[in-house]
Amino acid sequence: MSSEIVFTRKAKCRDCHRCVRACPVKAIRVRDGQAQVVAERCIGCGTCIRECPQHAKAYRNDVTDAAALIADSELVVASVAPSYAAIFEPWERKRLPSALRRLGFRYVAETAAAAQVVAEAGAAYVARHPDQSFVWSSCPAATEYVRRYRPEMASMLMPIASPMVAHARWLRQRLGRGVKVIFIGPCVAKKAEAERPECRDVDLALTFEELAEWLRDENVHLSSCEESEFDETGADARLYPLPDGALRTAGMLSADLGAKAFSADGFTDVDRALDLVAESTEPRILESLFCSGGCINGPATATRRNVFSRRFDLEDAASASADGHSIAVHSGTGRLAPPADSSLLDAAVRTPTPVLRPVSVSAITEALAATGKTGPEDQLDCGACGYATCRDKAIAVVRGMAEPDMCIPYMRHLAETRNDLILDASPNGILTLDSHFQILSMNPAFRKHFRAGEATLGKNISVLMDPEPFLRLAATTDEDHLEMTIRHERYGVTFHQILFRLEDANQYVGIFVDITASEKDQRELEQMRTKTVEQAQELLDHQIAIAQQLAEFLGESTARGEVLVQNLLAMAGETREAASAATDDPIKKWRWTTSTSK
Hints:
Elements: E1 6-8, H1 18-22, E2 28-31, E3 34-37, H2 47-51, E4 57-59, H3 63-72, E5 76-80, H4 84-87, H5 90-103, E6 107-110, H6 112-128, E7 134-136, H7 140-149, H8 163-175, E8 180-185, H9 189-194, E9 204-207, H10 208-217, E10 232-233, H11 245-250, E11 261-265, H12 267-279, E12 285-289, H13 307-321, E13 328-329, H14 361-370, H15 390-398, H16 408-425, E14 429-433, E15 439-442, H17 444-450, H18 468-475, E16 481-488, E17 493-502, E18 507-514, H19 516-582, H20 586-597
Parallel strand pairs: 5-6, 5-8, 7-12, 8-9, 11-12
Antiparallel strand pairs: 1-4, 2-3, 10-13, 14-15, 14-18, 16-17, 17-18
């Protein structure tokens, strides 16, 4: 079985740090924006589960293991915490034993049956040590807190087993060592307690939430179950889950003890009460419950009813069942004798295991400086990171439990610094005016373009430029910004200007984009375009003139050629006639041939 009782559902964690704020022992490590539960520091109180708005914190579900235990065992006992009377309605309480039997439990008992004996054993132990102070608690979260975070007080822990453990031992003594015991209550920390070596008599611890889930899965409805009794009850100890419950059950709130015996519930009051006991010069008995309001307000109660309504219901149930039989067994009558073996009530004395390693002052100073907290005035102690003070958070950073960027003021400062860097590096002029158009700020680019210095701050914008665009923006209600291109002859530059309002701050912002170079390029381009058009027209005119001249020349050449052709044709005709005549006269033929051969 996994030892990780409380864990984080990473997909649901939204980096809100609420669990860090809520965790009384700061057992939450934030890494890469994810809040992770550190098992060796966790005391299983379940506060983070209750507080997480995204339900990213959860505890291990053991319903499957419980069902398997019943399937594989002959006798499985349900030990039901007395706070059940504050969780279930009166009609449901009468049917709960039957519902548990339908799930397969062979024996259904109230843990309160052992709580009475544990309370009496505690009172006897205090009586035997009248000069000592004790921290008495059946709350595993409270005892683990002392053992891990207040180790100097671990020796004051009462060496009396909790009712859950004592009941399991008692059940095994009476029903046989082969019996399996499943505890059912409102507490997540009981799961961790059941896994301790000295608590091996408890096979499994379930919560009331898990019980409700199990009943749903098995289609067992309390409304359809018959009324029945627990096999074992403990009416006089049913107030045990409330503040003062153990002291009241033990009869230790009498006038004889006075202020010596008192209780504290909720982490803050428990911590203060421990301080009082540690500093007291006289013996004191402190009963501590980690959940505010007691066990009836545990993190896994499966009810959203008002905690005071739960308390009243528990008190009413205890009052109604107080019939003179403090502990009764369904199969017999009268009060059961306490266990013969007193070791059933002894708690193992465990060695304190401090989990907080010391941190040097230099390391704390360095961690503070890393987030800009170099002096006391920089330490706001706002608590946004989840830690009460900046120093506490710095210690957590050194211990690897927190990250520097969890500091909201520091991250805001970084964001503002980055914004300033962007403004300073921007090539565009940026100007901010107040509602009266007086200059609030100017970035370096604006100062350079408009030749403005520090003396210009606080003056009206009219000292640098025509204020008309800003006045127009202030007068219009239809537009929240204006864009225009204006040539500032005074400075020899042309700007594309974007002006807009900051409604919440009642300010005006102007962004000035220098387009002087592009405007010059545009003019040169226009001039080149015009010159090109002129040259093209000139070339066209020239081509037309040449074409005309060619046409005239071609016309004259054609006429002259016609005359030459006609003359050649005439000469050719004459030649043919002469040749024809020569062929008729031999002398002429000889002369013709001779002349032509020459």
